[in-house]
Amino acid sequence: MGKTKKGPKKGTSDARKRTEPQKTLNPFEVHVNRQKFQVLGRKLKTDRGLPGVARAKALKKRKATLLQEYKLKDKTNKFLDRRIGERNSAMTVEDRMTARFTAERMRAQSKKEMFNLADDEVLTHRGQTLNEIEKFDDPRSDDDDDDAFNPLRSKGHLDAEFVKDAHFGGGLLSRANEDGSKSRKDLIEQLITESKRRKAEQQKAREQTLDLTEKLDTEWKDLLPVINAAPKAADVERPKPDSFDMLMRQLKFEATGKPTDKLKSEDQIAKEEKEKLEELEAARLRRMQGISDQPAEVVPTHRSADDLDDKYVFNCSAECEEKMEHENDAGDSDQDDEGPDSDEDEEGDDDNEGDDEENDNGNEEDNDGESGDESESSDDDIDDLKYDSSDEESAFVPNGKKMSDAGEEDNSNTGKTSTKKTMTKREEESTNTHKKEQKSNVDKTLAIREDLKKRKELMEAARKELPYTFEVPDSYEELQKVMAGRSPEYQGVIVERMVKCTHPSLNKDNKEKLGHLFALLMQHLHDAAAADENENVCWSVLDRLVASLFDIAHWCPEKSAECIRQVLKEKQQEYQKKRKCFPGVDTLIFLKLISLLFPTSDFRHPVVTPALVFMGQILSRCRVESRQDVAKGLLLVSLFLEYTALSKRFSPESINFLRNILYLSTNLPSTQKVVTGAKLPAIRPIPPVKIFPSPCLSLHPTDRKKKSTRNNEPSDRLHASDLIGIEPVDDMFCVNSVYVSLRILSSMASQLTSLPACRPIFSHITPLLKTLLEEKWLPSKVTQEIQKLQELLQSINETPLKYLVATPKRPKALRLYEPKIEQVYTDGKQRRPVSREKQETQKLLHRVKREKKGALREIRKDRDFITKIRLKQQLKSDSERRAKVKEIYGDASNLQGEMKKLDRANKRKK
Amino acid sequence: MAASKVSKKLHSMAIDFLSNRRNANNIADIIALLESNESNIQPCFLALEVIFVEVLKRREMYQEQTTTAMVAADAESQYKAWLRECYEDVWGKLLAVISNSLKISAQAQAFSTAMKLIAMEGQNPLEPLKKEEHYFPSHRLRALLMVLLSSGRNSAPLLARLQEFSSYPDVLSNVWKQLFPIAIGLQRSGQRPDENFIRNFLDLIDKFPLPKPGRGERGEDHDLTDNLLCGQQGHNGYILNMDHMRKAVNKVWGCVMHWNHTPATQRMLLVVLLERVLPFLDKPLLLTDYLMDSLDSGGAVSLLALQGIFTLIQNHNLEYPNIFSKLYSMFEPEIFHTKFKARLFYLSDMFLSSSHLPENIVAAFAKRLARLSLVAPPEDIHIILMFIGNLILRHPGLKLLIDNPNRENVPEDPFVMEERDPSKSRAMESSLWELYSLQSHVLPGVGTAANFIYNPLPSVEWDLSQILEENSDDIFEREMKKKLKEIALTFDRPQTLSLPQHERVSQFWQLV
Q1: What ipTM was assigned to the predicted interfaces of this complex?
Q2: What are the φ/ψ torsions at residue B241 (nearest 5 degrees)?
Q3: For the CA atoms of chain A, what is the radius of gyration?
Q4: CB under 8 Å to B449, separation ≥6 — which residues?
Q5: What share of chain A is helix, strand, coil (3-state, %, to 5)?
Q6: CA triplet A384, A386, A392: central angle to 5 degrees?
């Protein structure tokens, strides 16, 4: 019996926890919500519940929380936790323990225990001293080994035979039959000795194994150095890999050839270039029309019943397109022609460039041979990366002329020239340059070519002279130090090299540096334009710098755009102070730069649009009082023309300015006497040029020189020196300016032919032209120009006008007779097309509602709980009171009874 | 240092004079000093001011007998007479300085001294008063005004100083009272007031407050004793008679109207008339002829005249049939460069606000404005576009101008721009091609604003008042503020100053 009463071992308790039976649900406790309709696949949270359990749980929780609170209600006593660090959340548990321990030790240091010598407390863990534990001996437990080989006995169980013998009467009957000599007592004694013996054996065996393991350990430790030493020796012995092996390995692990882009033929490269350009051009066109990158066409959400599935949508965009198309037809069909042609041209260009590039590369290689510098080789690398390798050939020639020039020269080269000729033709058509000019152009281009050759030589010289590397300067002063005294060509080379040396692919900081360089160059340009009063270096500086500026702008567009915007803003503020005066060359040069760097045809562009506003302001406000003003105005007008060349847009300011120039060149200002503004003559200027008082500047030559001006042939182009200085108006300038403004007017008119209001736009020009024709001083070239312009205007006047038609309203959909079909999903969720935010808010609202309900229910239950407790208390106190009252009554009646008894006894005595 | 020494010395001289009569000749010294040196004007005037303010307060110049019969030769009266002489002399100097001095500070000092002396003299009259009446030295004020007005230059700063005194009711009423004799005096003497005089005069009228209409209408009188420049002790009950003031204003205005005006002064006159005087005139309808005449003179003057006529039509039942053609003729390209552009648009918006106007007239306005928009600066195009949009909203018949599907093509615009009469301009037969063309204006803002002819019209009119005062700097600012995410760049690398494609500038310019 005693054997069975073995205390529970450690393992058993664990096992019990593990095997704690999963509480089987009492079927009577489960409440099932019966559903009326069963839907397959639907899962409900609320289909079954355990009301009793839930209630009990809730009650328990309430007792733990609400009841405690209720009990402490209206009580001011407080339980203070004085344990050290219990409230301090910053302390960890260990900190707290150490703090408490030290506190305890401090207390122990009191006087009383000062002389206590045995104060070295021995710390223990599970009965062993910590010192012992720290030896890291194997703390063997006594029952871990034998489990393995004797599962039955492992936990002190008796073996089956013994059980069979001893338990349940131990088969007394059979034994009695077999052998009566052994009594029960003997048997048990035998058992006990048996088990003791067994135990002793076990103990012994265990001790033996322990000893053995210890022995093994020590032996192992002895062996250890031997084992460790062995592989080292092996390492030394390893033979050196011979070259063959190495080669083999190399070949083995070498990466196999990566798939690369296949080598392209020139044609393919050209084609790709072309495609890229076309793509860019298409993007530009989109921007010009003010269409953002999002798809403009909105897919019609609704389809009417009589939709023919032909994708025909009757809406405004289609209509607009139609209109546009129609106008293109009505106009000179300029754009239609342009499409196919331009492709060809570009091909031609590419071919050219390819050739040039070859030549260049050859040249550069030569250079390399000579210099053989490290820096040069790095330059070379960069060259490949550069946006478009520099070809000096085309660099100096203004585009149109180069083309025409090439056309003249390369007559033998039939294949290429044909395309070039078409190009030149188109150029002429679009810009209304004329055959006569062409001849003079040829002469001029020859001269220019000469000039360019010289320049090229100069450039070469510059290239050789200058050092090959330039650091990007940190400050403007440093830049000035480098640039000071250099000619524009040298400056161009310097900046080009600076840009090469700080190519963004070389270092990630280079982009920032280049952005800074851009700002410095802006300042440099400004100073070049502001400083020179007599010479026009600034334009050639810009001419040389433009390529580098373009590259920088492409590497960091945001920064450069922001930089130019700042410059514009500054200039505009400067201009605001003197509204009536034309700003200087230092403003105009930036306006030209903008047209070089940014696409001026965009519908709205962060840099170009403010520039246009500014230019318009200048033209419509500034007084024209000197030769320079006229020149600046004409430059602005030609800039306007350039800005709008592609977008074919219209600016009233520039036409007004040209009108004023023409007016000033007639003799009207001197003959018309206008005193008040009451009755204005039909031909008159528009402000800022005023008719009264009569304008102070006249472009009409004085009488006596009429003949001389007549014989002078006007030059095609105004010169940059007209923009500066203080020279007065001379006759030559009069002729030139009139000639230039006439030509600008005609190209503007041809740009705007598609506009229906073209007639009123140019209506003020016609009478002016008539009066100009009557004048005697104009050279024949100018009069021809006038006549041509008149013809052009006449042709514009002859085009019929089409009445405006509003976009027709979309036809109202017929009433539909087919049912409205909505997709229904089976998961029970509504799939209405609601926006994401709306969905979110709906979800939140739903949640709030549910939470509110839940909270209300909880509050109600709490209240019930409290009332129940109150009632219980009430009942309890009532019953107590009743019992007390009863007791008192009982006592009292007892007393009464005894009193009566006493009385009666007294009476009796009497 | 020298200046402060001089002023200290002069101050001590003044104190000496006041403390003892033996130092009486100090005053003569000061006057002499005043004449001798230009730079000493200010301290001299200050010293004289100190002296005479005290003298007036002590009533040392007070003379009982106004009759000169008693030429008693006693020292006291002689002294008094001498002082009076000095006083008059100083006044002459003050006026001379105000009219002639080049230094503004000297003028200002003289002016403030003069005003102080007037105040003191008003409080302590030089001669006995007849009754218990309010005394104001109006002859001094008149002289001062005369000097201010006819100084031959723009005396706006001094007039501004005078304006500060206009819060005193007695000054106010006396100025108005004195203006009329000045004006009429000029007329009688046959003198023609020059431009500066007129300018100053109008400036004064513009600056001087008129009787407030609320009170002035009924001509109520007010007791304003406590706030007087020349309030004497013992006298009370100064009464500001609004009726008198109105009469004075009317009289003055009657004179001003008849002077010869240059265009500049006429414009000023009209501005003053419209903004200040018109509500106080007794018979504003009498102005009609004048306004009609100015209406024909063109430019800003006619615009102002038009506003006057509009006020008359609105408030005084004037009937003027031809008003719309006058307004119509005012829309010329020059109008965009005058200061009164906003006023014109505001006015014409009011004129054309009636929905009962004949359609062809309104269409003529719309068409003419559209034509003007082709030469107008962008800020004005905005206004014009909204204006035309509003016209179309008010008169649905004008939708034909932007939507006319039934007409065939025309060889040329039927609208006659040169026609002066809006009803004969055949605008209804035309179409607003100008707005269509403005869609391709260089500035994107204008382009999008002109798009309204393609969109359904709004149900509420556009508010013009917000954009009337806009200028091109605002447009520049707005464009600068707009930031696109991506900055597009050209894709053709330029090698030189000329663009690889579509170069225009180098066709006309040889810059390099």
Answers
A1: 0.75
A2: -90, 110
A3: 54
A4: B381, B382, B385, B386
A5: 65, 0, 35
A6: 95
Q: Which of B471, B250, B484 is nearest to B339 (CA)?
A: B471
Residues B253 and B244: their CA atoms lie apart, in Å, by 14
Single-letter code of the amino acid located at A519: A
For residues B283 and B320, is the Cβ–Cβ distance under 8 A? no
**Cβ–Cβ pairs < 8 A, chains A and B:** 282
Pick from B410, B495, B509: CB nearest A720:
B509
**Amino acid, res. A401:** K
pLDDT above 70: percentage of residues in chain B: 85
Residue of A nearest to B441 (CA): A650
Exposed e or buried b for every residue in B332-343, given b needs 16+ CB within 10 A?
ebbbbbeebbbb
Whether residues B497 and A761 touch (CB distance < 8 A) is answered with no
Instruction: Decide if B357 contacts B395 (C-beta within 8 A).
Output: yes
Q: Do A616 and B443 touch (CB under 8 A)?
A: yes
Half-sphere exposure of A402 (CA within 13 A, CB side): 21
- Within 5-34 of A, beta carbons closer than 8 Å to B belong to none
B476 and A316 in contact by Cβ < 8 A?
no
Residue partners of A307: CB distance under 8 A and separation at least 6:
none
- In this structure, what DSSP letter does residue A6 have? P
Could you tell me the maximum CA-CA distance found in chain A, to the nearest angstrom?
182
The DSSP letter of residue B410 is B
Mean pLDDT over A527-540 rounds to 76
Query: What is the reported pLDDT for A506?
Result: 81
Task: Specify the pairing of strand A718-719 against strand B509-510.
Answer: parallel
Tokens for B150? Answer: 């006819």
Query: What is the spatial distance between Cα B438 and Cα B417, in angstroms, rounded to a whole number?
Result: 18
- C-beta neighbour count of A80 within 10 angstroms: 7
Task: Tell me whether B493 touches chain A (CB under 8 Å).
Answer: yes
A743 to chain B, any CB pair closer than 8 A? The answer is: yes
Q: What count of other Cβ atoms lies within 10 Å of the Cβ of residue A661? A: 25
| pLDDT tens-digit map of A286-300 | 888 776 544 444 444
Q: For the whole model, what pTM was predicted?
A: 0.60
At B263, the pLDDT band (50, 70, 90 cuts) reads confident
In chain A, the residue whose alpha carbon lies closest to the alpha carbon of B338 is A687
H or E segment to which residue A718 belongs: strand A718-719
- CB nearest B472 (choices: A617, A677, A688): A617
Dist CA A451 CA A445 (whole Å)? 9
How far is the C-alpha of A280 from the C-alpha of A272, rounded, in Å? Answer: 12
**Rounded-to-integer distance, Cα A387 and Cα B493, Å:** 8
Token pair listed for B349: 């918006």
Alpha-carbon gap, residue A657 to A748, rounded angstroms: 13
Q: pLDDT digits over A56-111, tens only?
A: 999 999 999 999 999 888 888 777 888 888 888 888 889 999 999 998 888 877 66
Q: Which residues of chain A neighbour B479 with C-beta distances below 8 Å?
A: 609-610, 613
CB-based contact A807 B497, cutoff 8 Å = no
Closest by CA to B294, choosing from B335, B321, B272, B261, is: B261
Question: Mutate which of B372, B375, B418, B436 to disrupt the A interface (most A C-beta within 10 Å)?
Answer: B375
Taking alpha carbons only, the member of A270, A415, A427 closest to residue A353 is A270
Token pair for A536:
């026009």
Helix/strand/coil for A691? coil
The pLDDT mean for chain A works out to 75
C-alpha distance across the termini of chain B, in Å = 62
Question: Any idea which of A22-26, A429-433, B18-22 has the lowest mean pLDDT?
Answer: A429-433
Q: Is B413 in contact with A759 (Cβ distance < 8 A)? A: yes
Instruction: Find the helix or strand (DSSP H, E) in which A784 lies.
Output: helix A780-798
Cα dihedral A410, A413, A416, A422 sign: positive
Q: How far is A373 from chain B (nearest CA, A)?
A: 27
